[in-house]
Every structure is written in structure tokens, then in C-alpha cells.
Design a protein that fits this description.
Elements (H helix, E strand, L loop, with lengths): L2 E7 L3 E8 L2 E9 L9 E10 L4 E5 L6 E4 L14 H6 L15 E8 L8 E3 L4 E2 L3 E4 L5 E3 L5 H17 L7 E4 L8 H24 L4 E4 L4 H9 L4 E6 L2 H14 L1 H4 L2 E3 L12 H8 L3 E3 L5 E6 L3 E7 L9 H23 L3 E6 L6 H15 L6 E6 L4 E6 L6 H5 L15 H18 L5 E5 L1 H8 L3 H11 L3 E5 L8 E5 L1
Parallel strand pairs: 1-14, 6-8, 11-12, 14-15, 18-19, 22-23
Antiparallel strand pairs: 1-2, 2-3, 4-5, 4-7, 4-13, 5-6, 7-8, 9-10, 10-12, 16-17, 17-18, 19-21, 20-21, 22-24
């Protein structure tokens, strides 16, 4: 299916929309102030060596010195970095004080961003990620992702070994095949190998030219990842609304992704580029729970910490000849819509789709086949099971980044993420119970209730009898004060 990629750029935020047949399928957002350091390569300077911790602090030009453990020095890299617990428990063969010294310059890569008062964590084992491969310039290891089925790994490893050997004159090094490179052709793998070797050559040249504490390589920004990861044979055009960024992308594309260079276009229209396909409206819909279907049915999408549930409903759709056909057509449309919403919202982890119960097995098979067909279009790895006895379809989708909701939204300060708040009457009764509780412990001159206008209005009208009765029972006056800044469930009881 043909696709167009639209890029809306501003100094503070880059937004990328992937559009197929006039409908937005994916949305990617990167904000300048929230971009991490993981993957960046620096020419660091050893500031301090700590033999007791078998660690060193490296100055890479950040506010705080970064941390390097002896386990992350060169040697013994097999394609999987040790965990912090493993790295700490593993006895080093050569103490760190015999490998590095204060004032030494060394190539290091950030493997964990600074958190709180802690500096970044570093490794001297450089790895550069490409679209299909990970390049290990200081190693000769050839590996394949463990997520690829074991019966395919040997063949893929042999292919990769041959391709890497053909380009040995370009600088050697090892490679690890990423999961999305499982079905790549030799030409695609060779192109990625060439790109990664060029990137490493630029890092080495910069290390000789620049002083210590310099940034030598920054992991690709979103604009560049569009060319590396999102653009493919099915891409018709890549339109960007910034002349400056268009020129920079064209230079990058000519050097690293020549096939995408000719698809780049500078959008000069007067209308905002995202208005071409009503993308902002689609984003607003993707942040809501309810998704309308063209037939009149709808989906309810609920995202929790552990999993995401999608409920299918017929709504106002009664157009089919009989009830079974109505359900079947609604589920068929829902299968397409669910797959699109997973991509648009970037939902990952465990996902449960609750289709409407179908009686006929051929209907179930058709819906499941359509669902899997739509999921196959996803560039992120997915896996879907069949219908359970309860009519549920369980599936998983690999987490690649934060979901759209987590990226653009935060928990409501009023309901704290519950999605509901107590009624004014419930809050009023909470207040009455709290006053009675306080009256049994203290004996103030007066109780003053400070609450939202809606609760105070209820006390002055429908609940005035109960309030007066409580005042007589405790023998103390109860004053009321409305505070518009308070939320529906907030209140204070002041003892005067």
C-alpha cells in the first residue's frame, strides 16, 4: 500500500505522520527538551578512578561526571551487555586502576541517561544501531537477535558473516542482526553495513580532530530516523514544512539513504501541513476512549498499566439483513480499526480485544484472518492468538516507545487518573462524618467547611436540614465557605 510521510517541524517539537490511503496510520513525536542521551558517543576525560568500586568518573561535558564500571570497559563483549547486578558481581580480570588513569582521554558511549542526582552511565564498548543491524566496531562478533526463531539463526548468521567479510576492507567489526532484519535482502543488509561503517569512520575522524569532552556521535533524531526506519519502497513522498530542515535532510539522505533522497519534498503550502489530512483531529480522537466506526458501531479503548483492552460494540448499526450479519460486519470493521489504533496510539504490551460474540465458526475465522492481515502491516512486531471461549482475542505488540497518551497527557489532577470523581452529595456526607469525628476529639468554638461551590450550594439547599441537625447534635456552629479553586472532592474543615 502506498504511503506518504508528512513532517511538521518547529524548534521545540518535531511531528511525523505516516498516511496511507488518506488515513493516518502512525504518529511520531520528538521534543527538543526531552531527547535523551542514550546512544551518544563522547570523547571523555577520566576525572577520577575509584579502585574500591572498580569504577571511574568520566567528564563528557555534562553537568555531572558520568559513571563507568570496569565491566563496561573493552573486552568480552558478546552482543548482550551485562545487567548492573551481573556487572558488579563479576570479578574483573584486570583492575580498573591498571586500565585507566586520571586525565586519560577515551571513547565512551551513554547507556543510561542521568537520573536525579546520578550522572549518566557509560560503556567503552561502542555499538551503533542501524535500521537492520547493530555494528560492534571494536569486536568481530557476528550474532542474531534472540527473538528470531532458532531454526533461522544459523542461516542468517552465515549470510551476515559473508556480507561483513565482503566489506572487511572497510574496517572490520562485528554485527548483530536486529529483529526487523529477519526478512531483509542481501542488498538491504549491505546498504545498512555501508551506512554503519561510514558512521564509525566519522566518529574516529572526529576523535582525532576534537578536544576531550566533545560529542562525537549523536543517535539519529526523529527526522533522520524517518529516512532510516520509516521510509521504504511503498513510500511515495516525504514532505517537510521547513526549508532549513529539508536541506539538512537532503544532505543526510544523499550520503546515507540514497533511495529516500529523491522522495524528499519541501512543502510550501499556506495551510499547515498537518491540515492536509486533518491529522490534528485524528490525534485528538486518538487520545479519547471512544472510536467511532463508519458503520455506526464503536470501540472503547482502555489503557492500564498492565494491559490494554478494546471493547467492540454495534452501537447504532442495524443495516445488515439479520443479527448475525450485523455482528459479523461490525467485527470485521473493528478488526481493521483496532489494528490501526494500535499503530496510531503506539500501544504495546498485552492487548485484549473483546469482539462481539459470533455463533458461526466461518465468521470467527474471517474476522481473525482480517485482524491478522491488518496486524501484518505493522512495522512493530505483533503476535495474536485465536478466539478464547469467552470470545476474546489476546495479543502482544512490542513496546518501542511511550504510547501517544503517555507522551502527550498526564493524569488528571482532579480525579488522579481514575476517570471519575465523587458526586457532590457523596463529598457532603464525607464532610458530615469528618465533622462528627473531629467533634469527638476537639472542642473548638466553631467548625468552618471550605469546599467547592457545588458542595457548599448543596449544604445551603438540599442538605441544609442534615447540616443543621449535626450542628445541634455536637452543640457547635458550622460555617460554610465556597472556594472555586478546589476540586470536586477537595475540602478542608477548619477548627476555630
Amino acid at each position: 500500500m502506498q504511503q506518504d510521510i508528512l513532517i511538521n517541524w518547529s524548534p521545540q517539537e518535531t511531528r511525523v505522520a505516516v498516511v496511507e490511503s488518506g488515513a493516518v496510520q502512525e504518529l511520531h513525536i520528538e521534543r527538543a527538551l526531552e531527547r535523551g542521551l542514550v546512544g551518544n558517543v563522547y570523547l571523555g576525560k577520566v576525572a577520577r578512578v575509584l579502585p574500591g568500586m572498580q569504577s571511574a568518573f568520566i567528564d563528557i561535558g555534562l553537568e555531572r561526571a558520568a559513571f563507568l564500571h570496569v565491566a563496561d570497559l573493552l573486552g568480552g563483549f558478546t552482543g548482550a551487555r551485562p545487567t548492573e547486578a551481573e556487572a558488579t558481581a563479576r570479578p574483573p580480570q584486570v583492575p580498573i586502576e591498571k586500565q585507566v588513569f586520571e586525565g586519560q582521554s577515551m571513547l565512551v558511549q551513554v547507556i543510561k541517561d542521568p537520573i536525579g542526582s546520578k550522572g549518566a552511565r557509560l560503556s567503552a564498548q561502542i555499538s551503533i544501531a542501524g535500521r537492520l543491524l547493530v555494528f560492534l566496531p571494536q569486536d568481530d562478533h557476528i550474532g542474531v537477535s534472540q527473538k528470531i526463531p532458532s531454526d533461522q539463526r544459523q542461516e542468517l548468521r552465515a549470510r551476515l558473516q559473508a556480507l561483513a567479510g565482503d566489506a572487511a576492507s572497510g574496517g572490520g567489526g562485528g554485527f548483530i542482526l536486529r529483529t526487523n532484519g529477519e526478512d531483509a535482502s542481501d542488498a538491504e543488509l549491505a546498504e545498512d553495513i555501508a551506512y554503519l561503517r561510514k558512521a564509525w569512520a566519522r566518529i574516529k575522524a572526529a576523535a582525532l580532530r576534537l578536544p576531550a569532552k566533545s560529542l562525537l556521535h549523536q543517535d539519529l533524531n526523529l527526522l533522520q530516523r524517518v529516512l532510516r526506519d520509516l521510509s521504504g519502497d511503498e513510500t511515495q513522498s516525504i514532505r517537510i514544512d521547513s526549508r532549513e530542515q529539508f536541506e539538512a535532510l537532503r544532505v543526510f539522505a544523499r550520503e546515507f539513504t540514497p533511495a529516500a533522497a529523491e522522495k524528499l519534498q519541501h512543502y510550501k503550502g499556506e495551510r499547515p501541513i498537518f491540515d492536509l489530512f486533518s491529522i490534528d483531529e485524528e490525534v485528538a480522537k486518538a487520545l479519547g476512549r471512544r472510536v467511532e466506526l463508519k458503520s455506526g458501531g464503536y470501540l472503547i479503548v482502555d489503557q492500564t498499566e498492565a494491559l490494554t483492552t478494546v471493547d467492540v460494540n454495534t452501537g447504532g448499526y442495524v443495516g445488515a439483513r439479520n443479527f448475525d450479519d450485523t455482528i459479523f460486519k461490525t467485527n470485521l470493521e473493528a478488526a481493521q480499526a483496532i489494528a490501526r489504533q494500535l499503530r496510531l496510539r503506539n500501544l504495546g504490551g498485552i492487548i485484549v480485544a473483546d469482539f462481539i460474540d459470533m455463533v458461526k465458526e466461518e465468521h470467527k475465522d474471517a474476522v481473525l484472518a482480517e485482524f491478522r492481515k491488518q496486524l501484518a502491516r505493522d512495522r512493530v512486531k505483533t503476535m495474536a492468538g485465536g478466539f478464547s471461549h469467552l470470545g476474546l482475542v489476546e495479543m502482544t505488540r512490542k513496546r518501542t516507545r511511550e504510547s501517544l497518551t503517555h507522551l502527550l497527557c498526564e493524569s488528571c489532577p482532579v480525579c488522579a487518573g481514575k476517570g471519575t470523581v465523587k458526586t457532590a452529595r457523596s463529598v457532603a456526607y464525607d464532610i458530615l462524618r469528618e465533622i462528627l469525628r473531629e467533634a469527638r476529639q476537639f472542642s473548638p468554638r466553631e467548625f468552618r467547611v471550605v469546599a467547592s461551590p457545588k458542595v457548599i450550594e448543596l449544604f445551603l439547599d438540599e442538605e441544609s436540614t442534615h447540616l443543621a441537625g449535626l450542628s445541634d447534635f455536637i452543640g457547635k456552629p458550622i460555617a460554610l465557605q465556597a472556594e472555586s479553586a478546589m476540586g470536586p472532592e477537595q475540602y478542608d474543615i477548619v477548627l476555630l
